[in-house]
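Work Package 4 report. The design task specified in the project plan requires that, given a folded chain encoded as structure tokens, an amino acid be chosen for each position. We show below one input record used in the internal validation round.
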């Protein structure tokens, strides 16, 4: 089903809030982007589920940020379908990582996400990162 304008903006905002929080090492914002039973899986960092798991994932990124590793998540081509309080959204993902003054483009990929509307807010229920090639994040 085609999403309403309100749902489209809210889901887009969720994606932007999540990626910019990752780049800033903002643990609380990252955790708040997921449902209580939310999960994420990435070939670069593994699988995490539930609030405690998402918090552990977020803390790992925050620690990298504190050590001077700067990530820039760039998302594009966001597409979504909405069915009541459930949605599926996907987008392309480009990551740039800067460490010791050198920037490197990580392999491109995409996010595949199941979302749920909870108390009027769209949240990630399941977030899968698919990269076009293997990549290991430094220090994570």
């Amino acid at each position: 089903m085609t999403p309403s304008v309100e749902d489209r903006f809210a889901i887009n905002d969720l994606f932007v809030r999540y990626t910019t929080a990752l780049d800033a090492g903002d643990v609380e914002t990252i955790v708040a982007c997921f449902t209580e039973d939310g999960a994420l899986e990435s070939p670069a960092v593994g699988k995490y589920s539930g609030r405690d798991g998402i918090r552990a994932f977020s803390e790992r990124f925050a620690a990298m940020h504190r050590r001077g590793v700067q990530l820039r998540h760039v998302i594009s081509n966001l597409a979504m379908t909405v069915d009541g309080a459930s949605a599926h959204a996907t987008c392309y993902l480009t990551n740039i990582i800067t460490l010791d003054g050198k920037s490197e483009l990580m392999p491109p990929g995409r996010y595949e996400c199941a979302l749920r509307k909870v108390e009027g807010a769209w949240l990630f229920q399941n977030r899968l990162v698919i990269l076009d090639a293997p990549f290991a994040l430094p220090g994570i």
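The longest strand covers residues 70-83. Validation will be extended to a larger panel in the next phase.
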